Structures are given as structure tokens and as C-alpha cells.
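agent> Task received from the user: take the single chain below, predict its 3D structure, and emit C-alpha cells. No templates, no multimer pairing.
agent> Plan: (1) validate residues, (2) run structure prediction, (3) serialize to C-alpha cells, (4) report one or two observations.
agent> Step 1 OK, no nonstandard residues flagged.
tool_call: predict_structure(input=
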Amino acid sequence: MYKKIWILVRKEWAEVFRNRFVFFTTAFLPLLFTALPLIILYAASSSGDWSDAVGMSDMPAQFSSQCEGLDAVGCMQYFIISQFMLLFM
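)
tool_result: status=success, residues=89
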């Protein structure tokens, strides 16, 4: 039973490596979706003081209840990351 499954898995992965489009979507896009929020967070943290540009009025009203105890910058970073969580589902 396991031998048949192993043969099928090897066949599918061999086809993935033969077809560039399938390989691109299998390998590169998950890496891109992982790197994109990290790059945005790094750029946000190194760009200086966000408190002038970011306000709680820029976010949805129901989201402000989840940001208790955070300043405006931390809440905005949390909001951005929560938007990217849809990419991982």
C-alpha cells in the first residue's frame, strides 16, 4: 500500500520539476507571501516615527477593540499583519 503511495508522490513531484509554471507556483509564491509582510514590517519599523502618519481613525471601528494596550503604531502593524493572514489560509 505504501509503495503505491510513494510511487504516486514521486511521479507528481517529478512532474512539478518538469513544468516551470507549476514549479513557480509551488515554490516561489509561498516564499513571496511569507516575505511580503516581513518586508513591510521591517520598512515600517525602520522608517522612523509613524505616530504622525498613523491614527486610530484609519482603521475599522471594530478593530480598535482588539488593540487595547497598544499604541497607534503597534495597532497599525497588527492590522497590517492580520490582513496578510488571509494569504496563509
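agent> Step 4: summary for the user.
The two ends are 31 Å apart (CA to CA).
agent> Done.
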